[in-house]
Amino acid sequence: MVHVPNVTRADALRAVRNPLALIAERWTPTPRTVRRAALAALVMAVVIVVTGGAVRLTGSGLGCPTWPKCTADSLTPTSAMNFHGLIEFGNRMLTYVLCATVGWAIIAVRSQKPWRRNLTRLGWAQFWIVMSNAILGGIVVLVGLNPYTVAAHFLLSTALITVATLMWQRTREGDAEPRPLVGKAVQQLVWFLVAAAVLLIAVGTVVTGAGPHAGDSSDVDRMHVNWENVAKLHAVLAWIVVTLTFALWFVLKAVDAPKGPLHRTRDLFLILLSQGIIGYVQYFTDLPEALVGLHMLGSCLVWIGVLRVVLALRERPELVADLPGPSTESTLTRA
Fold this sequence. Notes:
Blueprint: H1 9-17, H2 19-26, H3 31-57, H4 83-111, H5 117-142, H6 147-170, E1 179-180, H7 184-210, H8 227-254, H9 259-284, H10 289-311, E2 314-315, H11 326-334
Antiparallel strand pairs: 1-2
């Protein structure tokens, strides 16, 4: 039989005050478990973006016309509502799955030994971003899918992906001071790439906000800009990102950089090519919903790819405790 430790009144009080500390005392996850928990949080952050896109592309953005309830009198969709209500409510329920996944990651990193406080902070940062975006999602519904709030909703999801990617990477490396693997010139080129990618994603939200997929079957206000001109600007920025990525790969090969940065840059280049093909096909085929949804997934993967390139430019080995040398040991012995 499995031994169950006695839980005293003091243990119960401590569990109420700081349940994570109590769990950490009784459980030590393996490094593999911690990495998987962080990866699960990242995957779920991408999933919630894709399902949110499905809500928009099926015209279900106002399937539940109010928030936090689905209707004024019901928390869940009613039998009188069509499938739009089910799709919107289903996406809301996935927020709880995302919270559970982030919570699992927080528990895992808090319980590992030794405790890495920086990882716990990254986990809590994800939690608060999720909470903030849930509130913003409610505002999006209450203001009738205003395109500017929808764009902010997507950008906040991108911030969640950023923190989740950073946390996943940090679980796979140590806590020593980062050591650069490339020179200053290469690092500057990468930051140009990051800036271009940020502009690409930001302009992409304008394309969506001005485009035909308003998120609901009714008349929803759009951003008052020329959609085709913004789409062309988005394409130009995409080519800039592709060019910078290829230039980075060429420079890394020329300076005989380590395999890590080279492989991450190659991966990003392949993701960008796939995303570009999808983007042009959807543009010339009048934006079919399936391709637009695939393009949203590609946007998440592009940003993760950019972040992985940045993080591959340095290494952080495990911290090694200072051990007394021979001279120190002999001095201590004589003393």
